[in-house]
Design brief:
67 residues, mainly alpha
Length: 67
């Protein structure tokens, strides 16, 4: 568990090729965010969809950085 805590709470400098992966994830998520913005009526569901998309990108980036 100590190793996991150290990994989770440490800075992970980007390694070769990682910045491109981050950019690709953000670009695709941004496209989906705009699709949600333009197709889903205003309300809790839309807000949650956008929040969870943001979280998905965060965790995907963390997965790239940590592993």
């Amino acid at each position: 568990m100590d190793k996991q805590i150290e990994t989770n709470f440490s800075y992970h400098a980007p390694k070769e090729g990682q910045p491109k992966l981050y950019e690709d994830l953000r670009a695709n998520a941004k496209s989906l965010a705009y699709l949600i913005k333009h197709t889903v009526p205003e309300g809790r569901e839309k807000a949650l969809a956008l929040t969870n998309l943001e979280q998905a990108v965060f965790w995907a980036n963390a997965g790239i950085a940590r592993n």
